[in-house]
Design a protein that fits this description.
- The complex is a heterodimer of chains A (447) and B (70).
- Chain A contains 15 helices and 20 strands.
- Chain A is α+β, with helices and mostly antiparallel strands.
- Chain A has three domains: 100 residues, Rossmann fold (3-Layer(aba) Sandwich), CATH 3.40.50; 70 residues, ATP-grasp fold, A domain (Dna Ligase, domain 1), CATH 3.30.1490; 241 residues, D-amino Acid Aminotransferase, Chain A, domain 1 (2-Layer Sandwich).
- In chain A, the strands form five sheets. Chain A has an eight-stranded antiparallel sheet, sandwiched between helices.
- In chain A, helix 7 crosses helix 8 and helix 12 runs antiparallel to helix 13.
- Chain A starts with a strand and ends with a helix.
- In chain B, a hairpin with a 2-residue loop joins strand 4 and strand 5.
- The chains are: A alpha+beta (447), B mainly beta (70).
- At the A-B interface, loops of A face loops of B.
Chain lengths: 447, 70
């Protein structure tokens, strides 16, 4: 096992990684920006290092200051969490060149999957179904329109290097596509440093279902079940559940097998997520992208399998075997995760501010991964995730019931949160029926 | 006269209009950025931008004055 780890992240995910590290007896180092000095993870780490001002570019995205912190504290490994530098092949290479252990996939896998066009082409070759789409970046709006005519409208316009829903939009005709292309291109350059744009068939009645994979040190790739992430606003996930109510045993076995093939095609090591779209009408699925890191919503998988995914990441990175028998994994019950965001529950606009009160729910099947406590300030510099509220039950109905009660018992004072939205979601007949798709939030808001 | 104020703490990412510009109801005046989201601030009436209180790179607090439209 590793003897020490620096967690190159902040908030709830830094805290969550530190929790497992401590349980395993691994010495922990947190890094924080000046804006985050008061957050719980900074205090809970064995040691913590201030790495710069609030601006992410000068702190959490600055590879050199993070590596300097690792040298100074003698940390032997780096866990990148999600976001920030987690999917930067250059950072992973720098970590390895420093003689440190990188808790993640090989830099080449990150690079191959980080370019959505390259990833699509690679998956198609490996026999993983992909949506009709471009095989190379669309050079300009005219090329995008020509491509869309070949593929068929509606199409989705995406930054090839993108993520987090930023720069994505759907277009139903050429005029809308030209506008979407311009927006996507400027966002792609600004947020991801690459103007390359991918055009893909858009499935309006689709569900977003992903598979957790683990690439083991001995070369095997395991699939740990699926997660349904169809509850989204602005193409960003708000709630996730496992198992997916839309996935029956036959579809599940096809999806899991395809995810394993996807991992094997790149010789994948460590935890990753293969994201797919499932066509609600036909039951077919297509590859969307692969996230080469720990996924935000990994706790629902942990709740139904009893497996600590972060622990497996540590074991795989240290070259050891995993802690469970892959043949003996029997997912049990149903789990739901609700992302608690600092945002108004109607329009989902950011709501930074100072937290004056904070009380987390507890009870059977309830797990809360939070990044804040009373007295902390939620600043405008980072994403709005305050906490992940998870509920596990023997059945979906029980998980929903427990989640409802927990939402009611989660008290956050001083700023607006989307907890009232989650209460609405858990009461909405569409969500409760299980028969929903990625349009559910906009339907709730237009009703 | 209409005062346009910030709805939240944010950074001013882009200032789209200049003092003296004529704007229509719904035009974008400035684009704020908060929590990795771009938030356009729109004119709520047509008129002339008589005063701009922010510049790109500024940090605005909730309720800070952004612009005045006459």
């Amino acid at each position: 096992m590793l003897d020490s780890v620096l967690v190159a992240n902040r908030g709830e995910i830094a805290r969550r990684v530190i929790r497992t590290a401590r349980r395993l007896g691994v010495r922990t180092v947190a890094v924080y920006s000046e804006a985050d000095a008061g957050l719980p993870y900074v205090r809970e780490a064995g040691e913590s290092v201030c790495i710069g001002p609030a601006s992410p570019a000068q702190s959490y995205l600055d590879a050199e200051v993070i590596l300097a912190a690792a040298r100074r504290t003698g940390a032997g490994a780096i866990h990148p969490g999600y976001g920030f530098l987690s999917e930067s092949p250059d950072f992973a290479r720098r970590v390895i060149a420093e003689g440190l252990t990188w808790i993640g996939p090989q830099p080449d896998s990150i690079e191959q999957m980080g370019d959505k066009i390259r990833a699509r082409n690679l998956m198609e070759k490996a026999g993983v179904p992909v949506a009709p789409g471009s095989h190379e970046p669309a050079a300009d709006a005219d090329a995008a329109v020509a491509e869309a005519e070949r593929i068929g409208y509606p199409v989705m316009v995406k930054a090839a290097a993108g993520g987090g829903g930023i720069g994505m939009s759907a277009a139903g005709d050429a005029a809308a596509l030209r506008a979407a292309f311009g927006t996507a291109r400027s966002r792609a350059e600004r947020f991801f440093g690459s103007p390359e744009i991918l055009i893909e068939r858009y499935l309006p009645r689709a569900r977003h279902v992903e598979v957790q994979i683990l690439g083991l040190a001995d070369g095997r790739v395991l699939a740990l079940g699926e997660r349904d992430c169809s509850v989204q606003r602005r193409h960003q996930k708000v709630a996730e559940e496992t198992p997916s109510p839309a996935v029956g045993p036959a579809l599940r076995s096809r999806m899991l097998a395809a995810a394993v093939r996807a991992g094997e095609a790149v010789g994948y090591l460590n935890a990753g997520t293969v994201e797919c779209l499932v066509d609600s009408d036909s039951g077919d699925f297509v590859f969307l992208e692969m996230n080469t890191r720990l996924q935000v919503e990994h706790p629902v998988t942990e709740l139904v399998t009893g497996i600590d995914v972060v622990e497996q990441q540590f074991l795989i990175a240290s070259g050891s075997g995993i802690s469970f028998d892959p043949e003996a994994v029997r997912p049990s019950g149903h789990a739901i995760e609700l992302r608690v965001y600092a945002e108004d529950p109607r329009r989902f606009l950011p709501s930074p501010g100072t937290i004056t009160g904070w009380a987390e729910p507890a009870g059977p099947g309830i797990r809360v991964d939070s990044g804040y406590e009373a007295g902390n300030t939620v600043t405008p510099f980072y994403d709005p995730l305050l906490a992940k509220l998870c509920a596990h039950g023997d059945s979906r109905a029980e998980a929903i019931e427990r989640a409802r009660e927990a939402v009611g018992g989660f008290q956050v004072g001083g700023l607006k949160t989307n907890l009232p939205f989650h209460a609405e979601l858990l009461a909405s007949p569409e969500f409760v029926s299980g028969d929903y798709d990625t349009g559910i939030v906009s339907r709730m808001r237009s009703a | 006269m209409a005062e346009v104020r910030a709805e939240m703490v944010a950074n001013v990412w882009r200032v789209v209009v200049a003092e003296g510009d004529h704007v229509e109801d719904g035009d974008t005046l400035v684009i704020l950025e908060s929590m990795k989201m771009e938030i356009p601030v729109l004119a709520e009436q047509s008129g002339t931008v008589s005063k701009l209180h922010v510049a790109e790179g500024d940090v605005v607090q909730e309720d800070d004055l952004i612009a005045v439209i006459d």
